[in-house]
């Protein structure tokens, strides 16, 4: 058994090493997949934000150059009072993070599509126009002190976005080479040149813009004239001086009839080329950013754009793209606005991350290169595969343990059976040798005439007969056991009332009971006839009675009780004694093959260990069952149940 235990231990170690490696690698793979999955969805979140910003930039870049006035000429339509349209920018912005739109003229003057030129500022827009004017003044100071240039993302931004290209589980299914291409800008990449009508350019012009048209234009009309009667407009046109330049601020003009205006222009002035630069941004202060484009016409630079309110912008992104998402329950989104490495504004959303195990940074392309985002979480959500893996590992470990335990128990049972067989051979040899020795000794005494009288001779003959019967029963038990083990024993079941069995047992055991001073009591209740093998039942009862006598010799009361009674559809037969009983742990084992209780009593008592095993096999062969229980007082009771 020691060698078997060592082999099982070696096997467990040999099995545990590759299994532990497999489990470790599987957990690492699941962890990598969890990180990759969270990274994928975090990138998707940032991409959605970037998509909105890109759409905003494209929308602003697509605006007509004169759309930043209260009235503008849609498309290439020939301008006229009946053809002018109100600019969509003349209404209050529909996005909460846009303060308003403005145009910075070449001379630094300011205009906004919220108010028509020459009109009084509506009361509900006075504060807003004042804020936009302050923005324009601050912008003039900034552009005169710092040369204008396109924004270029810092090197660290490129590094951060390169890190976002870490392989993810999506790479196994999609080629993401295009989507992972470095984005440095939203909207147009370089400045573009487009042709616009001279009327659009003329509509764009304000005081101080006379050089934008060159020599071809002499008169400017203003939006304030739109509400004037036709005759008043005509009179106004007649009063316009025929001189170069534009009107002063506050004056109202109308254009000459469109046909005359067109005829006054050279042919090469019907279409003008305009340079439109990509959108860029500049900090007005910590709370406002101007997103604008440069319009270059005949070396005159206009700057058109909108004012971004930083806090409202960050709150909008956090609310629209993160706060309602499931990941907000376990992840934290940190949106920040950076100005030359300094964080000027920030918004936190979602769960708090104290010690992040995952973090993904994103800096957005120009003109929003000031915007940064960080998604972090302390605990990455566990994959559903972990639960399956844990269950399978538990089941596998249980199976392996049960298998090893079964092998160990089987080997132990085989070893124990082998030991019991060896003990059985030794016991049988001793059991056979003892009666043979007694028989031979008494026969020699009879031959030598030691028995001087007839009474002593009869005593010797009785002992020889008893030892012969004992030897016969031992040999019969061994033969019957062997036949049952080989399934060669056939039972002859006959219907009866069990009376003849009881009588035969009494006759056979009478003398032995008398010699050992035992009393056999029979308690019998009327039972219906049932089927049993008479010879087998005789042998079974004799074995049980002899077993009780063997272990009850030391009892103060030597009494054996045989009871027979009906119960439900069975017949119960019990043999009860007044001996020492059976240890509780051995109550079921006493019917095992070659099993003997290890106690001081069994060491001094002869036996082979097949008596009760043979009884059990016989009872089971007749379709019954057998149990052993200790009495409330001294002794034990063995009960046989046979079907009726």
Counting DSSP E segments of at least 2 residues, the number of strands comes to: 20
Straight-line distance between termini = 46 Å
Mean pLDDT: 77
Helix content: 40-55%
Query: How large a portion of the residues is in β-strands, by DSSP E?
Result: 15-25%
Provide a count of the helices. 13
Task: Give unreliable regions as ranges.
Answer: 150-166, 207-267
Shape: rod-shaped
Biggest sheet descriptor: 7 strands, antiparallel
Given helix and strand content, the structural type is: alpha+beta
Whole-number radius of gyration? 56 Å
Account of the 3D structure:
The relative contact order is 0.08. Strand 8 and strand 9 (300-309) form a beta hairpin. The protein has helices at 2-61, 126-145, 155-163, 198-204, 230-238, 258-264, 310-323, 384-447, 454-485, 499-515, 534-551, 600-604, 611-621; strands at 71-72, 85-86, 98-104, 110-111, 192-197, 271-276, 280-285, 288-297, 300-309, 332-339, 342-350, 358-363, 371-377, 494-496, 519-524, 530-532, 559-567, 570-576, 625-630, 636-643. The protein has 13 helices and 20 strands. Among the domains are: 63-150 and 192-311, no CATH class; 385-469, Orthogonal Bundle (Helix Hairpins); 490-643, Histidine kinase-like ATPase, C-terminal domain (Heat Shock Protein 90), CATH 3.30.565. Strands 3, 4, 5, 6, 7, 8 and 9 form a 7-stranded antiparallel β-sheet that branches. The chain has a 5-stranded mixed β-sheet with strand order 15-17-18-20-19, with helices on one face. The protein starts with a helix and ends with a strand. Helix 1 (2-61) packs antiparallel against helix 8 (384-447) and helix 9 packs across helix 13 (611-621). Mean pLDDT is 77; it is low at 150-166 and 207-267. The chain is 42% helix and 19% strand. With 644 residues, the chain is of the alpha+beta class.
